[in-house]
């Protein structure tokens, strides 16, 4: 069946705080893999920060696309995530995609100062975050957004990404899968 998308092959890089993630990404780039994904669990003491690591990975490769697999939106404000994503995309010449998730591991999120949302609230917050991120990639000025979880009060967007960054959602329950269909550019199967 043709879904109108090319088949891409990727690797999952664990963000362990060693030189291994950079070596594996360079090897995947050399071998011709299309995508390298990195999980986002900032509360794991043995892991690098995902967005910082993705920047280093992108700067040390030539062809492979990098993306967070998937960002824990309970710990990453969408306005700053939009800026970081656009920055990485520009620095690597358009080889960045954005994987998002509603978040998990509530005790660890809370320990890091994140909100204690119910799963339903986390999905609603993610839906708002997608809107905020896309607004901040638009190049517009004076952006306002008034949501239940996220707000913009006259924000100026920029820099604008080199290419239209795709938003891929890690999802497997009905409400999240609905978000994939309505708002996302791709799906990251995320089975527990």
How would you characterize the overall build of this protein?
- The protein has a four-stranded parallel sheet with strand order 4-5-8-9, covered by helices on one side. The protein has a three-stranded parallel sheet with strand order 1-2-3, covered by helices on one side. It has a two-stranded antiparallel sheet with strand order 6-7.
- 36% of the residues lie in helices and 19% in strands.
- The protein contains six helices and nine strands, in the order βαβαββαβααβββαβ.
- The radius of gyration is 16 Å and the shape is globular.
- With 192 residues, it is α/β, with parallel strands linked by helices.
Concise synopsis of the structure shown:
The chain is an alpha/beta fold and 192 residues long. The chain is built from six helices and nine strands, in the order βαβαββαβααβββαβ.
Shape: globular
Helix-strand string: EHEHEEHEHHEEEHE
Tell me the fraction of residues in β-strands, as a range: 15-25%
Q: Which spans have pLDDT < 50 for at least 5 consecutive residues?
A: none
| Strand ordering within the main sheet | 4-5-8-9
Mean pLDDT: 94
Write down how many β-strands occur, each being a DSSP E stretch of 2 or more residues: 9
Count, helices:
6
Helix content: 25-40%
Q: What is the distance, rounded to the nearest whole angstrom, between the alpha carbons of the first and last residues? A: 27 Å
- Class by SSE composition: alpha/beta
CA radius of gyration is 16 Å
Main beta sheet: strand number and arrangement? 4 strands, parallel
């Amino acid at each position: 069946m043709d879904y109108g998308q090319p088949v891409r092959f990727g690797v999952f890089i664990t963000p362990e705080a060693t030189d291994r993630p950079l070596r594996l990404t360079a090897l995947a780039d050399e071998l011709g893999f299309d995508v390298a994904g990195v999980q986002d669990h900032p509360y794991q003491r043995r892991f690098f920060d995902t967005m910082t690591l993705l920047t280093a990975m992108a700067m040390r490769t030539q062809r492979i696309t990098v993306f967070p697999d998937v960002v824990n939106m309970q710990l990453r404000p969408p306005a700053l995530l939009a800026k970081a994503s656009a920055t990485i995309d520009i620095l690597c010449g358009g080889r960045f995609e954005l994987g998002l998730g509603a978040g998990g591991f509530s005790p660890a999120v809370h320990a890091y100062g994140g909100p204690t949302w119910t799963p339903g609230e986390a999905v609603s917050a993610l839906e708002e975050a997608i809107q905020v991120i896309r607004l901040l990639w638009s190049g517009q000025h004076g952006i306002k957004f008034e949501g239940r979880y996220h707000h913009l009060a006259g924000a100026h967007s920029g820099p604008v990404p080199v290419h239209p960054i795709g938003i891929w959602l890690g999802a497997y329950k009905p409400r999240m899968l609905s978000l994939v269909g309505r708002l996302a550019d791709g799906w990251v199967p995320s089975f527990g």
